[in-house]
Amino acid sequence: MTDTLTVSVLGTGIMGAAMARNLARAGHTVRVWNRTRAKAEPLAAEGVDIADSPARAVENADVVLTMLHDGPAALDTLRQAAPALRPGIVWVQSTTAGIEGVAVLAALAREHGLLFYDAPVLGTRQPAEAGKLTVLAAGPAEGREQVTPVFDAVGARTVWCGEDGASAAATRLKLVANSWVLAVTAAAGEALALSKALDVDPHGFLDLVAGGPLDMGYLRAKSALVLEDRLTPPQFAVTTAAKDARLIVEAGARNGARLDVAEATAARMERAAAQGHADEDMVAAYFASFEEKTGS
After folding, report:
1. Which of 51, 107, 126, 239 is 20 to 30 Å from 13 at the Cα level?
2. Is the Cβ–Cβ distance between 58 and 11 less than 8 Å?
3. Strand residues in 123-264 grouped as ranges (E)
4. Which 3 state secondary structure label does DSSP give 32?
5. What is the DSSP letter of 41?
6. Which of 66, 7, 57, 58 is nearest to 37 (CA)?
7. Nearest C-alpha neighbor of 234 from the set 183, 178, 288, 273
8. Type and span of the H or E element at 148
């Protein structure tokens, strides 16, 4: 078994493009597909082959990696790829698809005899581009020698959550982690919005908590994006954050937990998107505190 693989990456948004680039730099043969081909074209300069269809992208692949917007998009794309999928190849499913979504995808994998890995990642644009994501993974031991080089190329750490990808064990952990990330992001935006509303210098607030138990690097990083008007390109877009927040709310509701903060965060993200901030960094939910789109 060689560590050099043929890897198909389906979906070249913020995360998928960075993952494909790092896989190519690690010496793997990489073929990609994206619904909007123009978004994938820059990868050609990295020696990546751009395919015109999901089926063409997965031909002769050792590993297929999906990093699409949501579960339905991943399901539709793999169904398009199905005629070219051979039994026994590895499917690394990194889309945040939700618990029920992962179950549907795992069923498709069983139908086609694929080795299925539930493998969402923690991290945003910057760690993705640096190959420093944290991979959360669940899947069969028999295919790990194939997925390990892939995870090593895109991430700094892999956290194994079990041997059954269909259980969505990795996605469950991802949703818990994302609930925290989204709550902190929304809270940071609200603190900045309140400082504006009360005519308080936001830097005064940041100085007040500096170095104490209420301070955190994430607060400062996200606040800087608002205060310095650096919301594009996004580290993680408002629309994607809204989708993830809804998955968190649904997962909680299905399992007996009412998640008021996640519900409110989803509403804020959706409101910010409707105001014109859909493709900005998720901390642009800051603007949801105001009636109209406004400067920081």
Report:
1. 107
2. no
3. 133-138, 155-162
4. strand
5. G
6. 57
7. 273
8. helix 144-154
Neighbouring CB atoms inside 10 A of 32's CB total 30
Region label for 262, one of left (φ > 0), alpha (ψ between -120 and 50) or beta (otherwise): alpha
How long a stretch of residues is the chain? 296
Strand 133-138, strand 121-122: pairing: antiparallel
Contact 276, 293 (CB under 8 A): yes
The residue type of 41 is E
pTM (2 d.p.): 0.94
For 95, the 3-state DSSP assignment is coil
**H-helix or E-strand spanning residue 293:** none
CA–CA separation, 263 and 258 (whole Å):
9
Q: What is the pLDDT along the chain (296 residues), one digit of tens a residue?
A: 457 999 999 999 999 999 999 999 999 999 999 999 999 999 999 999 999 999 999 999 999 999 999 999 999 999 999 999 999 999 999 999 999 999 999 999 999 999 999 999 999 999 999 999 999 999 999 999 999 999 999 999 999 999 999 999 999 999 999 999 999 999 999 999 999 999 999 999 999 999 999 999 999 999 999 999 999 999 999 999 999 999 999 999 999 999 999 999 999 999 999 999 999 999 999 999 998 655 55
- What is the C-alpha separation between 161 and 138, in angstroms, rounded? 5
Amino acid occupying residue 269: M
